[in-house]
Amino acid sequence: MKLTILFGGASFEHEISIVSAITLKEKLNGFDLNFIFCDQDHTFYSIDAKDMKAKTFSSAKHKKMPVLTLIKGGFSQKKMFSSKEHNSIVLNLIHGADGEDGTIAALLDFYSIKYIGPRVNASVFSYDKRYTKWFCEARGIKSVKYEMLSSDEQKDISIPYPIIIKPSRLGSSIGVSIVKDESQLDYALDTAYEFDKNIIVEPFIENVKEYNVAGFMANGEIHYSIVEEPQKNEFLDFEKKYMDFSRSSQVLKADISDELESKLKKSFSKIYKNMFEGALIRCDFFVVNNEVLLNEINPIPGSMANYLFEDFKGSLEKLSNSLPHSKRAKVNYDYIHSINSAKGK
Amino acid sequence: MKLTILFGGASFEHEISIVSAITLKEKLNGFDLNFIFCDQDHTFYSIDAKDMKAKTFSSAKHKKMPVLTLIKGGFSQKKMFSSKEHNSIVLNLIHGADGEDGTIAALLDFYSIKYIGPRVNASVFSYDKRYTKWFCEARGIKSVKYEMLSSDEQKDISIPYPIIIKPSRLGSSIGVSIVKDESQLDYALDTAYEFDKNIIVEPFIENVKEYNVAGFMANGEIHYSIVEEPQKNEFLDFEKKYMDFSRSSQVLKADISDELESKLKKSFSKIYKNMFEGALIRCDFFVVNNEVLLNEINPIPGSMANYLFEDFKGSLEKLSNSLPHSKRAKVNYDYIHSINSAKGK
What we know:
2 copies of one chain form a homodimer.
Chain A: E1 2-8, H1 14-27, E2 32-38, E3 44-47, H2 54-58, E4 67-71, E5 74-78, E6 83-86, E7 90-92, H3 103-110, E8 115-116, H4 120-127, H5 129-139, E9 147-150, E10 163-167, E11 177-179, H6 185-193, E12 198-203, E13 209-218, E14 221-228, H7 238-244, H8 258-272, E15 281-288, E16 291-298, H9 312-320, H10 334-342
Parallel strand pairs in A: 1-2, 1-7, 7-8
Antiparallel strand pairs in A: 2-3, 3-4, 4-5, 5-6, 9-12, 10-11, 10-12, 13-14, 13-15, 15-16
Helix pairs in contact in A: 4-5
Domain ATP-grasp (chains A, B): 133-332
Main location (chains A, B): cytoplasm
EC number (chains A, B): 6.3.2.4
């Protein structure tokens, strides 16, 4: 199968995206892969498979590689007297800003490029944690209770300690702190405000049971991964999560009852349907008092959560064959014609 | 002032956008204007001011005009041995799909082009009426009660007749019907489903008081237009609204109490703040039992609601000088460097 891995982006998770892409190169061994790197200035480069190493990017060697531009149906590389087109299906693997905020989705939609990844609406509802809460409320999906803070206004937090403080729009635990008492609050707020002017506060639930499920829609039904119980110590900090993005060995299925598994899948389906079509997403859930609560939606999970799928390659192929078509409005000039003829023009 | 009017788009409101652009050409007399047309195939053309007539587009004469491509900071026009750049501020005047659904916003953001218009999030929350309802609920903004229907599932409507049926994602009254009793229902549903698989049903409130207010944020405060009481017969159909898009003579202020005016402005502000910065929007309100209800947000109103502003040119200048900057994440390679040095590479 032909597939173009698009990675990088002007994002705090830029490095994570590089690690993800390198991991997928190994996991998708046998696929006919292209690699396109989006640098922090939004220039696209075609990267040869042999150069898919972290050092290529950290040493800026990528700047010597062929520049690509977006054209209808794909990316184009200018040659002396011709051009080469990359027009296979794109896997959007840009984590964080650009990739998960709807920008890349809109670009690919506009240029009629088929892609795996969340569409614009789905991106908006998963990238900013405020909007994920709105989405949950509207759809009746249970999640952890929360309060919002903004750098614009002074407001007290009414959730009792311990609490967890997160920038509204970042993943990978960047800027996140657990605050056990008031003495730690100011530092945690400052840290989070460095990344976002909006902050979300939630109760920190000690020893909460946590389960992750990934999945995607193909041929009208959701294909679920195994359910994983992630190991953790309090919560994964950036460095640990970073390592997590290069995971490639399959994990063991969580030892849970059929009832809980079906509850988790039901929640996943409620989140996915009529929103995330075209994407392979991972949902991270908490279970509190036998109730499933959504913690986070990862619309472009690290290394595509390959380690949760028994047949990862087969899964991507299935999804690729079932991508949504955007129905584009047909334009006509009936009204202009009718007005012109009324005017006798 | 230099300004680039971007219009057209692959949208059911394509023609309306052309009319809007022609109207603005007149209203912005004295500005240094460029016109860029996006055709239904997503090709950009540079249109000379003298060709800004409906016939240029309905007769496909635009296809002979210079093609533009997006580059960092603007649009580029290839010449024989050089290229010409259009890099003034863009006014996004594409109504409906492309312009109001977040696509154009994402494109302009990605290429670091400054623009007047809703950003991606604001587009998602105003383009699809379902998400506008979620937004209202989350922000405590009152709106008309509603039910959603989808072509996927059979569901009864519990709102008593008369009702109004609208496709979830179109403006300009396209596909909208008033249904007075059950005998008219099927036809109205079929009409709406032609345009969208999701439909919104609301009670039709006869002789409801309707008021429109436009405005924008500049220098940290909202600048409001006058409040208009639109004339109407039941509701504006497409043809009437179409004519409405070419309005250019200033309207009279609605004869309302100071109290109601301040209520309307307060609602506008609740909608606008922390969402629509960068855009000039028009909100259409109903007043029922002395309560202000949001009917619709127009994030790119027809001909920019010029007729509601006493000093329209001055308003656009103020807004242009106060456009939001998107803070782009600075990329560094600290983790890759630290991992490589730990590995001894």
